[in-house]
Specification:
This protein is α/β, with parallel strands linked by helices. It has three helices and five strands; from the N terminus they run βαββαβαβ.
């Protein structure tokens, strides 16, 4: 399966990447800062994108079987608004990219 994982530099996201790779899935880690991913694997592609930019997400989601969202926001930010806004962008980008599976593990 070809997976796009959001929040891949956080604890949960990195674990999702590792487990997906261990199961021989192809993974695109969509991150703010690619330098934070030190993991290397033939089935891993790391790309930089703004999770609040629907167009950027569309281009990264295209061709994937599922999206895994492991996003987390720092406590000082308005988390409810952040999660809501990101989820709207993700779902809209998924529809435009013909991706129908979403796994959400926000923390």
């Amino acid at each position: 399966m070809k997976l796009a994982i959001l929040g891949a530099t956080g604890r949960t996201g990195l674990e999702a990447v590792k487990q997906a790779l261990a199961e021989n899935h192809t993974v695109t880690a969509i991150v703010r800062n690619p330098a934070k991913i030190t993991l290397a694997h033939d089935n891993l592609k790391v790309v930089e994108a703004d999770i609040f930019d629907e167009e950027a997400l569309k281009s990264q989601f295209s061709g994937h079987d599922a999206i895994v969202s492991c996003l987390g926001f720092p406590p000082q930010k308005p988390t409810v608004t952040g999660y809501l806004e990101v989820t709207k962008k993700v779902v809209s980008a998924m529809k435009s990219s013909s991706v129908s599976r979403l796994v959400v593990c926000h923390s």
